[in-house]
Amino acid sequence: MTDEPYHPKQGAIVICDFKGFVPPEMVKRRPAVIVSPRMRKREGLCTIVPLSTTPPKDIEAYHYKLFIDPVLPEPYSAEFHWVKADMVYTVSLERLYLPFFGKDQGKRMYDKRIISRDDLVNVQQCILAGLGINA
Predict the structure, then answer these.
(1) Which of 79, 49, 68, 80 is nearest to 113 (CA)?
(2) Which DSSP category does 30 fall into?
(3) Model confidence, pTM
(4) pLDDT at 135
(5) Is 35 a residue whose pLDDT tops 60?
(6) Rounded CA Rg of the chain
(7) Inside any domain, residue 1
(8) How far apart are CA 27 and CA 21, in angstroms?
(9) Which of the residues 5, 78, 103, 108 has an alpha carbon 20 to 30 A from that of 72?
């Protein structure tokens, strides 16, 4: 992560910069949930699922409505986000940063949060569905 060089905890909400990807891949900055724990011999990488404030046209088993309270800082503020578990990515930590909501005495104030265990389990089930794997 460019602002905080460590592997975020599993379930952490981060912002991922998908710059350089090609449509229909993700191509902009958006919130994401870290779904992989820190793993040996996999330095600098983690696996994420992106989030969207736009509801899917058709809700599938790989979508999950994630309520976020309090909301994330602008421009990602919304009462809920949709997990897009059909679009799992393994990305460099350099693409990730924590959301921040302002500065205090010149230092950024980061929004560090982790989704609940129940939400993480639901996201993992959606990932299996998105990969066509029946659990």
Answers:
(1) 68
(2) E
(3) 0.88
(4) 58
(5) yes
(6) 14
(7) no
(8) 5
(9) 5
